[in-house]
Structure formats: C-alpha cells, structure tokens
Write the structure tokens for this entry.
Amino acid sequence: MKKRQDALHIRIKRQMKRRIQGLVYFIKRLWAHPKGKIGLSVVTFLVLVALFAPIIAPFDPYDITERAEKGLSPRLQHPLGTTINTGQDIFSMLVYGTRVSLVVGITSGLSIAMVGAILGVTSGYIGGFVDNLIMRAVDVLLVIPSLPLVIVLTNVLGRDYWIIILIFVFLGWGGLARTIRSLVLVIKNSNYVRAAELAGASRWRIMIKHILPGTSHLLIMSTALSTAGIMVAEAGLSFLGLGDPTAISWGRMLAQAQEGGALLFGAWWWIIAPGIGIFLAVFSFMRIGIVLEEILNPKMQASAGIFKIFKSLDSSYVEKVFDSMDEEDRQKTGAVAPQPSAHSWEDV
C-alpha cells in the first residue's frame, strides 16, 4: 500500500513538473514575440496593481471616513483629484477598479471557454439527439438580442458582479461551442481516437483525454479574446447603470463621472483615467490573443487572408469582374454582342 502511494506521489510530481515546464516554455514563446511582450507586460502590470491595490492606493475608496474635499483638481496628495459628488480619491478608485474589471473579465473568459469546450466536444463527438439539442440552444442564444436580455436578467437576478459574470457566461458560450464542435467533427475521425475506441475506452475518457487536448489552442486564444470583450461589455453595463452599485470598476467610474457632471465642471481627468485603464487592458488582451493565434496556428501569416484579397483588388481585377458580369448578362438575355462597324471613325 505504501509503495503504491509513493508511486502515485511520484507520478503526480512528474505531471506537475511537466505542466510547469510546458507553461514556462509557452510564456517564453509569448515573450519572444514583440506583440506578445507588450501584451504580457501590460497584463502583468495590471495584475500586480490589482493584487497590491491596498498598498498602492493612498486612500480606501470604500471607506466613507477617508473622503476629502469635493471636486479637487490633481495635486500631490490626490494625483487625479477627487470626485465632485462624493469627494473620493480618483486615483485610489482607479487602482481598486482594476480588481473588479480584471476579475469579471478573466473569470468570464475562463468560464466561457470551459462551458463552450465541454458542450462543443459533447455535441461533436456524441452527435444525435444531444448534438441537435445543444446546437438548437446555440441557435437561440445567437439570435436573441443580448442587451435587452441582460437588462431583464439584471433586474430579475440582481446586479452583483458575480451575477453579471453568470449572465456573460450564459450568453457567451454559444459561438465557441459551435466552433469547437466543427473542430471535433474532424478530430474524432483521426487514427488515435479510433484506436482508443477499439481499446475499449469510454466516451468520457476519449472526450477528455484525447479530443479536448486537440482543441486547447482554440480555447487558449478564445479565452484571451473573450476576456477583452467581456471587459468592454462590463464597462458598458456599468456606464448604463446596470453594474454592481457597491463595487468600484472602471465602467462605474465613467458612470459616476457622467452623473457628477465631470465634463460640465471641466474635470476631464475623471474621465480620462478609467478610459485609459479600459484601453490598456483590452489592448493587452487583444495583443495576447493575436499572438497566441500566430503561435498556435503556424500556418497563419500576417499577409494572409483578407490582406491578400484586398491587395489583389487593383483596377485590372475590377475591370475583369465587370466584363465577366456583362458577358453573363448577355448570355442570360440572349443578346448578341454588337459587331464592330466596317467603317472606323478615321474613315468618316
């Protein structure tokens, strides 16, 4: 019994060591890319700011006793001034707002990836009634207007940011699940999946051990890109007054700036500060997502796809297109192309 436990511990340690080495190698590849270096640096900076917010922020914006004079302009004690309506330190709000914005974005992105992966793999591999049920649910989610549904759900379920995360996950998994399903339809016909089926492996073991790792590159890229989109969506909801009123986020700061008349009183720093925070976060996660796509999909090049298509659209290409359209119209209508006259203009 003891030998079995020791062997199990050794196996677990080897797996953990292998995964850590893979993560370090992956981060090194991401860091070696110029775009990835920028995105990774900004994300690391924002994460450190969120973790050490009580140390970085000079005041606690949640503490009512730590308020100053209302509407102060930027100065040494208050680098970004204070709010007009409550007297809170804007720099401290900006630092603490990093926590909520990152938690909502990253948690929603990871949850969407997990739900979309499970349902996409299940739909693609099992097929039949399960496939039809999941895909019909995806169709319903994709055609329902998101904003009215979010307004209804927040009024019914509440505006706590954990509820908002659940709403984002509920509305965001459909597109990823459909994409994963398309990839699984190709993977399940591969030789190693057929070999696992012949060996007697169960469906769940095949889906988890053999098929799901084949979709990991798509999941990692989708998580980074969806995180950026969720952060923008959270800022928009908070700006519309649909966010958590008890939590300080960058979107909530923009909403308070509008309510307090920041533009009317010339307090532009109150608007610029959270705007820059949202831009940096979204920009960095988008950069990481693009670099991950280039790393995990080596066939994709910067000059491929749409760029090549538009590059070939010169004047000669457009003329050929219109000439072919005219020829097709003449063939459909049965019209005969006009023959050139025997007399040219020079003979007239």
